[in-house]
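Pilot study result, target chain (153 residues):
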Amino acid sequence: MRESLVIGWREWVGLPEIGLDAVKAKVDTGARSSSLHVEGVEEHVRDGRVWLRFALATGRRGQPLVTCEAPALDRRDVADSGGHITRRWFIRTALRIAGREWHAEINLTDRRNMLFPMLLGRTALSGRFRVDPALSFVCGRPRRRMPNLSRTL
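Predicted structure:
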């Protein structure tokens, strides 16, 4: 196993399988799961399996939302920092930070009133990184590709 890399309390995260090269994420060791801001989650059945279609921002001002599809992993209750419980869809997809890539579970939710469109929780971080709360954007911003306006896992 590689040595744990030190990251800051906020970092750029790539989600290559769903078409996001760089999204600002708050690194939150107090949160168990990771969350991603999406709009308009729709479920449909494909080959006997539930799939989710959702829209997300590419991070570029003035660009249209990207429509993505991913197989649903699960639907679970999640408690937010205020103790309010909501039922959310989860997907499993690749995350990329500092050239390292691995798969993690992410719940899809409305984070439009939050400062960061993504929350990176401790389950995704465990055994991979150490967090220094005095640091920010230590790993740099991943390079952008031209956005593909529709992505399917």
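One observation from the pilot: The longest strand covers residues 85-97. A full batch analysis is planned for the follow-on phase.
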